[in-house]
Amino acid sequence: MTSLLILLRRCTINIKNNGGIFTGKGLSWIHLDHRKVSDKFLGVQKLDQEGHVHPGLGCWKSFLRSFFGGGHDGSKQIMTLEDIAKGIREREFKRIVVMAGAGISTPSGIPDFRSPGSGLYDNLQKYNLPYAEAIFEINYFHHNPQPFFALAKELYPGNYRPNLTHYFIRLLHDKGQLLRMYTQNIDGLERMAGIPAEKLVEAHGTFATATCTVCLREYQGEELRSDIMEGTVPHCSQCRGVIKPDIVFFGEELPQNFFFYLTDFPMADLLIVMGTSLEVEPFASLSGAVRDSVSRLLINRDLVGPFAWGPSRHSDVVELGDVVSGVRNLADALGWMPELETLMADEGQKASKTREE
Ligand SMILES: [Zn+2]
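Above: query sequence and zinc ion SMILES. Below: predicted holo structure tokens.
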């Protein structure tokens, strides 16, 4: 297994814990892959109550794990998918938190743009990126925004349709049982499926809004659409600065509402993790942030994160395989498939009507 180096860039963590204070301002994304760590990174810093830095906290992940409680009690899984379904159906679970990643979007045809060599990056060859990840680095964006906007053109809301996984979460919301959905995806398919913005933490940002990089004037994503579709870099009507969609780049702060997790996860009565490799921090560690007694359902191709590290919590349930099939199995066990199919058909009709107009 790759050694895990978890470091924060230009940031301090700030969460109150037993008299010590960790600041949460300026958290940015960290890959759990040592190849991506460079000398630009600073270590994680721990502050005492006076705000003095304590060196050597070392590992954000182990910090979060110790802060929120680990989760491996060595006992065997005793719950099943049917038990989870029963809990949802009988409304025993009313504050469900969903965590999702790219695996729920690939069934909609969204290319896996984060993996070098997976198609989309290859299309960006002509821009001579120094390395693939530069496309999401803010300093590179200021130097050359073209490659990012080429990607934006591909991913801009409207090119793809939500699939059964998104509508399943929409249905959880319609039934009043969704506390929040935390998504790593920037394709906007959650909003398109009708999950309201206030129920979403788009941890890596969104194309729905945008901000001028110079005067910080705010724009709606729709205002940028024609420029982006024409392959033009959008400029601010006020100051001519480059307008950047509110996607979170490496080295940028997380969206403010990411910190909802501080209340959402302790309140959650069920956690569903789907279609994510849980490889980007601090998103990955959230899966350990629910109370020990709370069931966690993983619907994914592979075992990931705390589900892979060791024996799971006795209330963990794992549904391995294709994500859409896994969600379909859950919907079947709930008896929700007819409702889900009606919802998808209605929304599909609405969308084609909008396209015709
Ligand atoms: Zn401006």
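The two ends are 52 Å apart (CA to CA).
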